[in-house]
Structures
1.
Amino acid sequence: MQSAGLNIARCFDNGIKVLESWGSGNTPSGHIVMSVKKEGESCYSVDLSTVGDAGATQDVLAYKDGTGTAMVTLLGTAAGNSATCPGGSPVGLPSRGGCAVAAAALGGLMPASSCLNNTAGTCQF
């Protein structure tokens, strides 16, 4: 069963606008898309979805440029995490060390990041 989503727009004094689209779709945990614009031009987007059944899910996180072209796709499963660049093969991400810290830093670009929770008011995207 597909359910309706929720759209939240936030604007910043420097011209950045963020639109979070939350929808549960047909996946166990849902689907989130965050789009970022500055002065009307698309900067990037992040598309996060959970696919599979409740016993074997995987999280897919795709970072896309302003035109919607994938830059990197991260895949998280119970067996581990991997990253894939366009045209490339998946590369395993370690669970600790420098690479793990770098991958975790991408979380600042993800939906529901802490910077979005500290904005004043909402706006039109």
2.
Amino acid sequence: MAERIQPNQDVERTRQEALERELLQDVAEFVQHNVVAAQEGKKCVDPRRPVEGDNHGMLATAAADMGDVQAFWALNLLNGWGLTPEECFDRVFAAQQQSGVPFTMHTDEDTGIRGSARQPGEKAIGCGAIELATNPDVVSGYMNPASGPVAYADGVIRIIDHAAEQFTRGAYMKVEVLQGPHQETLVVENVGTRASIRQTDLIGVPRAFFLRDKVREQQESPKLGARIGFNAEEQAGFDWLRNAQTAATLENLAYGLPIVRVNADEPELSPVFLGRVQ
């Protein structure tokens, strides 16, 4: 006799489908009430800000502008350009400054990053995306392993220290504060280009979801690359590394969480369940 599907399998499938519908309904309702116009500048995908303030509508991308530095450092190692970590930061910073908005990075009380100039108890520049890039166990997800994981990780720590020094000297930077443990329950991928989504609702309650403005990220990257001076091959390599680093960050911070795609330009459209972070 053919093997029959156990009744409890059908029950579990039905339960999961009901949970997905409930999740999509909740996301749709939140998005419809919390759409904001897109604005210049970047912020991290991380929602753990005590006050979001004027960050509403900024491009949500892993590690904000520091994520671009991480990708450029990895590209430098891969291509053997011989730039120092500090020079990589300076190149990206100079290119970003042409946009006319502050270079954004942040401190995070939940990370364990400590650069050479940092004392115990001091806040670290960075977030999980940067801390993970200094972790020997997972750093290979942030660069081409052939480039040397140790060299990459050590370089990221030097970048952190250099960025902190530049901020202290008054460089045009914005440092956000991320607080508290991670409590995110999903990842929201926005494919809109004219609008984004608040990560804090209208009554000031933080919503526990990672947000990525994916299409805007894809549109802005070539602009940054042109200011740095990338050719087509270098731009493609930079974009690949940036995406790989975002995927590695979500894999380590959001493994197993549902991913929902929305279009903030047209919030009346139904969200789409894409699966779970793997």
